[in-house]
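Q: Here's a chain of 101 amino acids. Please give me its 3D structure as tokens.
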Amino acid sequence: MALSYNGDDMSYLRMQIDDVPTKTSDEQIDVEEAVSHIYSACQGRTRLKETFPLHRVRHINYLRRGLRVLSENFECLDASRPWLCYWILHSLNFVGRFNTT
């Protein structure tokens, strides 16, 4: 499985607000601006491939560990644990490893 990368132009990934800005969309745009500055600063320093490999077994193990305990890097997100569990389970389902038991 691979993710697509569209060369240097990432504008197609930016949020579309459809002339209805909200506080959330404003914050999203701020984040996109900050990330685009970082991306621009790093651009050209590394070669990006058009596809990225999915190390399936490593990803599955990482996700399963995340269901048991948060690493210290994620301790600040402890209040978001239900949300993290949702996305971990979604990811396991995506790679065909979601088990309901």
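Q: Can you summarize the key feature?
A: Confidence is low (pLDDT under 50) at residues 1-7.
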